Amino acid sequence: MENPLADFPSWPGNAEAAVALTFDVDGEAPWLSEGPEYASRLTMLSQGRFGPTRGLSRILGLLAGLDIKATFYVPGHTADQHPGAVEAILADGHEVSHHGYLHRGTDGLDVAAQRAELEQGLTALGKLGVRPAGYRSPGWELTPQTLDLLGELGFSYDASLMADDRPYWITSRNKPLLELPGHWSLCDWPYFGWTSYHGGLLADPAAVERIWLAEFESACQDRRAVTYTMHPEAIGRGYLARMLDSVITAMAERGRPWFATHAQIADLASPRIH
Fold first, then answer.
1. Topology at the third CATH level for domain 6-271
2. What's the CA gap between 220 and 215, in Å, rounded?
């Protein structure tokens, strides 16, 4: 059975598309979750640390200059280790959402471990005054048990699935959750993520800019929402922040975007059957 699509009124300001710029502030968590041996791999950890300690400030400055609000998905471990990073995000009026605790993929965890990741993440964010409305699974992988836990713990939206390029409703413990889908092609990591252990592509930013703008133009034609997923440790590099600036500028020139947080988009949603 198909999930019902979400219905929206006209976007604010008669915009042609709702554009969500989202950032996963992973820090060191993904590497530490790989195993205890990563605790001594200082270069790997320092690459992750670049996100909250350097890349994030560059992104926040860019967004402030353009008067755009974004959604930042923060693992609880990042909140515990870099509370000033979360405080800076909040001070600029952005949304903070849930991204696990130690960035463990839910598909490799039993229900008890999934619950612990969610609850520990909520506790870490709660110390900084955040009660997130939304969740993005580390590695963009969900299980049915994850959805049930999200419903039980009071989340209102998820941003991990890819069954459509339009927002749609999913069921969690008989509670509807809005799905705000993304896609690997609209994420910076497949293009610019690199490690000596996992490899990477190191793509030409101009090629990625063309892809992202083509998707924006498609979203304008469809009058739909579109999500871009980025990581301060990647997009926060100087030359890639310049690419993002160029993408945003071109969007404003080619169409009428409403740059919105995921929570703002979710607040407008109502169900309809497709």
1. TIM Barrel (3.20.20)
2. 9
